[in-house]
Amino acid sequence: MTALRGVATSTGEHLRHHGDREASPGLLDLAVNVRLARPPRWLRATLSAEITLLARYPDPAPARMTVARRHDRAADEVLLTAGAAEAFVLVARALQPAHAVVVHPQFTEPEAALLAAGHRVDRIVLDPADGFVLDPARIPATADLVIVGNPTNPTSVLHPAAVLRSLARPGRVLVVDEAFMDAVPGEPETLTAARDVPGLLVVRSLTKTWGLAGLRVGYLLGAPPLLALLQRAQPLWPVSSLALAAAQACSSGRAQSEVQARARRIAADTGYLLRGLAAVEQVRVHGVARGPFVLIETPGADQLRLMLRDRGIAVRRGDTFPGLGPDWLRIAVKEPAVSDSFVATLTDAANALAVRTREASP
Ligand SMILES: Cc1ncc(COP(=O)(O)O)c(C=O)c1O
Q1: Ligand 1, from 208, 210, 219: best to mutate by most atoms within 8 Å of Cβ?
Q2: Is the separation of the CB atoms in 314 and 308 below 8 Å?
Q3: Quick one: CA torsion of 259, 255, 38, 292, rounded to 10 degrees?
Q4: Residue 108 CB less than 6 A away from ligand 1
Q5: Residue 33, pLDDT score
Q6: Which residues, in sequence order, are CB contacts of 199 under 8 Å at separation 6+?
Q7: Which of 34, 103, 205 to mutate to test the pocket of ligand 1 (most atoms within 8 A of CB)?
Q8: pLDDT in tens, 124-167
């Protein structure tokens, strides 16, 4: 088998490592950022009803129309995909970038997809000391493909829409991964309706907010010629009829009210977790967390992660993300009682680690 160049790098990063590998059954799962344990009842009912129609081939037109309406777009400005993950593969396979730039730390699949398609990737690594702020001047003028997350996984930082707009140029494709944007109340920095930004592709996912990670459903928004190019790289019937039914249902007005209420709750829960973490002496948070997860820096996080596992909690290791290292962990935001229990367990583990380190030093 041909190796995927760069997918496991010499620095110990593993671009294809994701939180699901850490969430073993029986552990409290704070490693994966899927908010719901299962899809809401009304959504499960929609999916169940669709099962009786599975003999038909899928027709994306109604879902495409509903998603377009939700974002003030036309149907040909929407391309439904098998999750956001497929969108990155389409970008990598359909485009021929001469200079692809990925802004890190971020979700690693875009870079993995580019490498797997044979492209070279230039990394721009944001600095925790600046709160992971993106200075547009750092993006090389020669970049003809730029990929950035907003809000970014794992930093949880939300970049201003104006900063992202300023990255667009004629001849450049700008991919903004908004997989977690629906967890931000009011989506103030979204670019979903930005028709005036040349080369813009916005990636959205329905898997996080709706508890649909197993279904594989997401979409791209962008100019019709660019989407048509990407669509040609898709197989026939790439999105199942169940996934299409979910896309349609989750874009309805009722679903949008529900998602906004949920986003407000997530923001409150994030604040609660941050206040708890502020009381843990060994922990630092850089930047402003706006997504449904928090990135922390704490000495010996690689050991702490294992100690937390022994105490029944799975968290996401940080060292597989470019730009981070063994002192980083990502924690999913849950309701306050879960955060209380996490903070107490983390404090206990961090104190035990400090004692162990002191005893081991000569
Ligand atoms: C930032 C980000 N984008 C995209 C994805 C992929 O989402 P999907 O499940 O829709 O493929 C993930 C999954 O973890 C993610 O963290």
Answers
A1: 208
A2: yes
A3: -20
A4: no
A5: 80
A6: 168, 169, 170, 171, 172, 173, 174, 223, 226
A7: 205
A8: 999 999 999 999 999 999 999 999 999 999 999 999 999 999 99
